[in-house]
Amino acid sequence: MLDNLTQRLSRVVKTMRGEARLTETNTQDMLREVRMALLEADVSLPVVRDFVARVKEKALGQDVVGSLNPGQALVGVVHKELTSLMGGDLGPEASELSLASQPPAVILMAGLQGAGKTTTTGKLAKWLLDGQHVHNGRKTGKKKVLVVSADVYRPAAIEQLKTVATQVQADFLPSDTSSKPEDIARGALDHARRHHYDVLIVDTAGRLGVDEAMMREIRALYDLLHPVETLFVVDAMQGQDAVNVAKAFADALPLTGVVLTKLDGDARGGAALSVRHVTGKPLKFVGVSEKLDGLEPFHPERMAQRVLG
Length: 309
Ligand code: GDP
What we know:
Elements: H1 3-17, H2 24-40, H3 45-60, H4 70-85, E1 105-110, H5 117-129, E2 134-135, E3 138-139, E4 145-149, H6 155-168, E5 171-173, H7 181-194, E6 199-203, H8 212-225, E7 229-235, H9 241-252, E8 257-261, H10 270-279, E9 283-287, E10 295-297, H11 300-308
Parallel strand pairs: 1-6, 1-7, 4-5, 4-6, 7-8, 8-9
Antiparallel strand pairs: 2-3, 9-10
Helix pairs in contact: 1-2, 1-4, 2-3, 3-4, 4-11, 5-6, 7-8, 9-10
This protein binds guanosine-5'-diphosphate.
Guanosine-5'-diphosphate binds at residues 111, 113-119, 160, 206, 261-262, 264-265, 287-290, 294.
């Protein structure tokens, strides 16, 4: 995950730590290296520019000048800014799933077809069923979870969700492809209420590209379900394209978080940083395997530490 970025940045960090003196030249060199590393990792240009400008500003300011080891201090600035870029600026609880509501807490899954929505629905269900959910740093116990698919266009998608649900032993509510997505959602909400589910996860239809009809449909589901979490699922392998898709979803829906999938692949991972920046929403989870236990909560601080080596 983000291996390339890690390799490059840790090299910069090593060099900088060894610098007893900070000069215009070595600061510029370091900033250039950071910029290159981020661009190569697929972080989008505006995000990179913004990032480098912030580091530069801090580097020239009190944070670094006059410190005992300026190289080390500069690394500290990069670390802080990277944590912030990854969502650390939103506070430690931002990457937690927020389920505080009158049960059932509804989680709405949004994203393009193939992004990993159905797989992530299964992974999340498992995570909740296993009692992995954390609130204010504490596990909140095992949840009773119901999953449903509002994808009436692809019967195979409904079947896939059923398979995934069976594997993780989550309850699955069958959907009738002749129903409207809103009716399915309404029915699922009613079922979840009557049977005292803690969480209802609604998987939705994805299209190959962003289109208006799709956005209208998911918006209608949002209005009806009042989800506590609306998660935008995005494939890390999408690279730069992910930014545009993220923007379209963020404009259409009040997203609460992002799930970045397929970080186990050879994705350069920089999309993670851009998507967070573009949507203004925290990355809550990353998908790190096709298997249903391949979901990890995202921690900005830890990730920044890892990337800087
Ligand atoms: P959906 O169309 O958005 O519901 O996407 P799917 O859940 O069907 O996922 C599309 C493909 O990506 C499937 O083959 C999944 O097994 C795969 N996939 C999803 N998440 C991950 C992940 O985190 N890592 C890997 N390697 N594959 C994933």
